[in-house]
C-alpha cells in the first residue's frame, strides 16, 4: 500500500515550490500513485479507467511489462549522451522507426520533447528552402518555445514572445468552419496567404492531421493534398506533426496523415513514441537532412540509450499486440456508442475523430453551437467520481478528448459511455 504524502500535502508543496501556472482539471485533483495498462490507482487503491493518458504518456498502457523490462535492462547497463560514442540502441530504433515511414523518409533526429522536434523541423525547412515564412493552422498546438509558440494558434497558449514569420491559415474544421467538410475550399486560404502575404516563396507548412489540444478536430477530407500542392509550388516543405495522432492511434493508419493520402517532407513525433519516457523525433529524407551538416548540430540527451530502448520496445508491442487493429475496432465501437448518446442528449453537439482519438463537443444550443464550458467541467468531474478519466480541450474548453492507451477494450469503451450517459441523465 501507498504510504507517501496525501493529496493535500502534495497540493501544499505544489503551491509553494512549483510553477504558479500549473493547472489541474478536477475540483479535487487526483493523486495517482500506480499505473497498470489502461488503469490508474489513487492513494487509497481506488482504480480509475484512464481514457486520456494515451496521448500524454502511454500509447501501449501504463507500465507495460515489456517496455519496463527494456528500460530497466538498458539503464542497468548504460545511460549516456548519444553523441560521443557508438551505441546500438539509437541505431536500432532509428532503423525500426524508418521502416514505419512512407517514401524516402528515413533519416531520424532524436529530441527530448515534441516542442524540440517541431523547433528543429521548422529550422530545417528554413535552412533547406532559404525562406522564412511558415504557414500553420488556426487552432493548432505545436509547442511552447519561441518558434513553436508562434506556430501554435490559440491565444490561451501564447505568451508575448516574438512570433516571426508564421501565418495562420483558416482551420479546415468540419464542425465550426465556414466551408463545412470541403477541404479544398479551406486550402485556397493557404494559396492566398502565399500570394498576398509572402514573396511567393515559403519555408513550409506545419499541421496536425487531427488537432489534439484544439479539441480533436480532424482536418476536412481533401485538405492536406490541396494545401501541400500550394506549398510545394511555393518551394516549401510540408511538416506533419504526429505528436498526438501518430503511432497507430487512428486505427486506420499508423500515421495520422495517412488518412489524407499525403506523404510529408518532414514528420515530427513525441509523447506516445516512448510510452511515457521523454523522447521526440524528426524524420526526413537524406537530401533534406543534409542541411544540418552546414554547422554543428547536437542534442545531449536526444536519442539516449534508455529512451531509444523504450522506443524500440513500443514499436514491438504495437506490432505484437495488434494495437493498430485494436484502435480501429474498439475506436469504431466507442464512436458508434457516443453517436447514440448524441441522439439522446441535446447538449452533445458533435462526436468526431478516428480510432482511439475521439472528441465529444458540448454545446448549450445546437444551432448557435454555444460552448457548454461549465457543463463540460461538471461531467468530467462526475465521471471521475464514477472512476473514468477523460480529457478536455478545444479553444473554448468544451470538448472531451478521449485518447486512451491503445489496449483499451470494448468493455472499457462501454463503461466509459455508460458513465457519461449516467452523468448526463442527472443534469
Ligand atoms: N505537438 C502537438 C500536436 C502536441 O499536442 C504537443 C503537446 N501537447 C506538442 C507538439 C508539444 O509537445 P511537448 O509538450 O512534448 O513539447
Automatic annotation (TrEMBL):
The record ties this protein, via InterPro entries, to: Aminotrans_3, Aminotrans_3_PPA_site, PyrdxlP-dep_Trfase, PyrdxlP-dep_Trfase_major, PyrdxlP-dep_Trfase_small
> Could you confirm whether the keyword Lipoprotein appears in this record?
no
* Keyword annotations: Pyridoxal phosphate
- The coiled-coil segments of this chain are none
- Going by the entry's taxonomy, the superkingdom of the source organism is recorded as Eukaryota
Similarity comment: family membership: Belongs to the class-III pyridoxal-phosphate-dependent aminotransferase family.
Q: Kindly provide the name given to this protein in its UniProt entry.
A: Uncharacterized protein
Q: From which organism does this entry originate?
A: Hevea brasiliensis
